[in-house]
Design goal:
The chain is an alpha/beta fold. The chain has twelve helices and twelve strands. The longest helix is centred in the first third of the chain and has 19 residues, at 15-33. The protein binds 3-isopropylmalic acid and magnesium ion (MG). 3-isopropylmalic acid binds at residues 90, 93, 249.
């Protein structure tokens, strides 16, 4: 019997090569753990535009709505930079997030011990780091109306709107508090309540949800600019950070770099539970399509592989198997296997994308 259904959307750039390694790992779970998944694949981003003239077809959107988990690679590339905004590769991803209503984006930043010297920060600042950024993903300035480029008084004006309703803030705050209960019990909410009304509302609602439903959690508030500074000064002060769509985009890239490489960080985007009790879910690496290294076997597949580990944990309730996969990655790094992004010593040959996959599969075998 199938454990559940997965739609793979490899996308552009290094997306397909990273996803090829995930497919091998999915097969491993079927062969060696008796956990067979019902896997299908479709196009997204520039690849979908090339084939269909749209970054996401309605058919692919429908499929995404009907599966237990979507595994997403990456989208975009210089070839598509001049396309009209409405058909840019990124619109495919933004449509998935919006129509699946994936309001809670979980972006863990964990520093693997073997990589602590790789961060741009000192080892003692990042070693053992384990924080979770919860980014609101379906509202705020990414989607607010009015938006556009308009004519006004003989010149053009670009407009975007930051907009949050109380219920949108409350639901992502709950996600953060729930996660904190399973972690170190601390949430720091980041906003710009000093200059934005939407920030004032954000702060009030997060505080109210806390006081009424999660008094056991330690809640603090920080302005998002100071939050960025504190993330680079002493990141271990944080457990869970909850913030809006745009601040979360920025702060999660900052947090990613603490861990040494963007090539390491997975994410889960979760929505409300479906009829079968599983949440609507899409899993994707935090990094982008890296067109400069695409197709050369240089990509680090770990962020995409760890995104599948998050799928095991959050969609399929297979926390032990997620642990197994995460430990396999940790072992491979401890053994010194490095893709090019994780290497700064001259003269050492980096592992290719598929050699990294081989090493992780061998570590999985060894875990049995
Ligand atoms: C991310 C990316 C996306 C975003 C882009 C590709 C639209 O930067 O997931 O962080 O801005 O949300
Ligand atoms: Mg980003």
């Amino acid at each position: 019997m199938s454990v559940g259904s997965i739609l793979i959307l490899p996308g552009d750039g290094i997306g397909p090569e990273a996803m090829a390694e995930v497919r091998r790992i999915i097969d491993w779970y079927g062969d060696k753990r008796g956990l067979a998944f019902d896997v299908s694949e479709d196009l997204v981003g520039g690849a979908a535009y090339d084939a269909h003239g749209t970054p996401l077809t309605d058919a692919a959107m429908d499929k995404a709505q009907s599966v237990d988990a979507v595994l997403f690679g990456a989208v975009g590339g210089p070839k598509y930079d001049t396309l009209d905004f409405s058909v840019k590769p990124e619109r495919g991803l933004l449509r998935l997030r919006k129509e699946m209503d994936l309001f809670a984006n979980l972006r863990p930043a964990q520093c693997f011990d073997a990589l602590a010297d790789f961060s741009s920060l000192k080892r003692d600042v990042v070693a053992g780091l384990d924080i979770m950024i919860v980014r609101e993903l379906t509202s705020g300035i990414y989607y607010g109306e009015p938006r556009g480029i308009f004519e006004e008084n003989g010149e053009r004006v670009g407009i975007n709107t930051q907009r949050y309703t109380e219920s949108e803030i409350a639901r992502v705050a709950r996600s953060a508090f729930e996660l904190a209960r399973k972690r170190a019990g601390k949430v720091c909410s980041m906003d710009k309540a000093n200059v934005m009304e939407s920030g004032i509302l954000w702060r009030e609602v997060v505080q109210t949800v806390h006081d009424e439903e999660y008094p056991d959690i330690e809640l603090s508030h920080m302005y998002a600019d100071a939050g960025g500074m504190q993330l680079t000064r002493w990141p271990k002060q944080f457990d869970v950070i909850v913030t809006d769509n745009l601040f979360g985009d920025l702060l999660s890239d900052v947090a990613a770099m603490l861990t040494g490489s963007l090539g390491m960080l997975p994410s889960a985007s979760l929505g409300a539970p479906m009829a079968n009790g599983r949440p609507k879910a899409l899993y994707e690496p935090v990094h982008g399509s890296a067109p400069d290294i695409a197709g050369q076997g240089k990509a680090n597949p770990i962020a995409t592989i760890l995104s599948f580990a998050m799928a095991l944990r959050y969609s399929f309730d297979l926390g032990d198997e997620a642990d197994r996969l995460e430990k396999a990655v940790e072992k491979v790094l401890a053994d010194g296997v490095r893709t090019a992004d994780l290497l700064n010593e001259e003269g050492k040959m980096p592992a290719t994308t598929s050699q990294m996959g081989d090493a992780i599969l061998a570590a999985l075998d060894a875990s049995l």
